[in-house]
C-alpha cells in the first residue's frame, strides 16, 4: 500500500513517520517548504505539491475544509490526478456538509472516500495510538484497515460519509464544555480549601469524571505545560462548526451556544495560538486570591 500524506504539520508529519516505521511506502507533501524540510530531516521522503505521486491512499491532514476542498478540487487536484480506485482519507476536522459534497464528487470520479478525524494529539500520532472516527463505506474501511490499525489504538465506524466529522464535532463540543465545567468545579473546591489535585482525584472516582479531568488537567493544566499540540483557534473553529451544524439541522442547543460564547468571549485570553487547555486559566485564577474566611 503506497500512501501519500498531504499536510506535514504536527499531526500529519507524525502520522507519516508512524506509517513509514510500520513498513508502508510513504511519501509526504506540504505547501510549506519548512514543513517538508523538517520531515525530510527525519527520514521521510517528501515532494513538492506539484509533484504529487500516484498512490493507493491519499491521507489528508489539513487545518479546515477550505484546504481539503482546494487539495481535491483545484486544477490539477486529486479529482484529476489521483489514479482511479485510490482512496482519499480526510483526517482533518472538517465541515460535515462540505465532506458529504466532496465525498460525492470523489466517488463520481472513480475514487473512494473516508472521513477519519483523529484524537490523541501529536503524541498519539507519533505513537500510533490515536482514536479515529470513520465515515464512509464499510468496504473502504476494510480496504485501508491495515493503515488505520498502524495509526490508531481505537477505530469506530460511525456511519456513511460525513458521519465521522459529525461525531468529531460532537466530541470536541463535549471536550470544550468539560474544560470549562471542570475548571469551575476545581476553582470552587480550591476556594473552599481543597487542593486541585485532591479535588480531581475525588471527581475521577465518581460519576463526574471525564477525559478532561483524567487526562487534560493532570497532563497539561496542573503541570503548567500547556503543550498538548492543539490550539485554541482550532477548538474555536470546531465549536463554530458544531454550532452551524446544529443550526443547519434546526436543532436548538442552548448549552452549545453558551459554550461557543464562552470560548469566544476574550480573544486574548487565550489567544488563538495558545494551547486550548489555557481556556481554564481565567476560571482557576478566581481561586488564587486569599480565602476570605
The oligomeric state is: single chain
Portion in helices: 40-55%
CATH superfamily of the largest domain: NAD(P)-binding Rossmann-like Domain
SSE order: EHEHEEHHEHEEHEHHEHHHHHH
* Strand segment tally: 9
Radius of gyration based on Cα positions: 20 Å
Mean pLDDT: 96
Shape-level CATH architecture of the largest domain: 3-Layer(aba) Sandwich
* CATH class descriptor name of the largest domain: Alpha Beta
Q: DSSP strand (E) fraction?
A: 5-15%
Largest sheet: 9 strands, mixed
Give the low-pLDDT segments: none
Number of helices: 14
Between the first and last Cα atoms, what is the distance in angstroms?
A: 66 Å
Active site: 168
Domain 6-phosphogluconate dehydrogenase NADP-binding: 2-159
Domain 3-hydroxyisobutyrate dehydrogenase-like NAD-binding: 162-282
InterPro entries: 6-PGluconate_DH-like_C_sf, 6PGD_dom2, 6PGDH_NADP-bd, HIBADH-like_NADP-bd, HIBADH-related, NAD(P)-bd_dom_sf
